[in-house]
Amino acid sequence: MNLTLRKSKLHSLKLCIVKHETLLMDALKADLGKSQFESYLAEIGFVIEDIDYSLKNIDSWAQTKKVSTPITLFPAKSYVIPEPKGKVLIIAPWNYPFQLSLAPLVGAIVAGNSVSLK
User: Whole-prediction pTM value?
Assistant: First the structure.
């Protein structure tokens, strides 16, 4: 998955979260008894900040980086090339369902992986 598509997916996810923020808070109140303040602070706001941080840094994370090469391999050059691992399974626990399902989702999208979310 190229960087443009990853950024687009992150922007779409953020837009969806912001658009349905009130519904998310109502659901967390009904299911877990969380106040609006706790819902935003510990769940929704955390994921939004994670998306913003990822969007800010994704370009530098995806760049090829030159690393040192052992002298025994002279005159070779060594690089670290970030590549997606493939498929990711995310299973969220019950206590922070929104944050603990979508925060790993953000990381998986940034890394370029496909995700199964339960």
Answer: 0.88
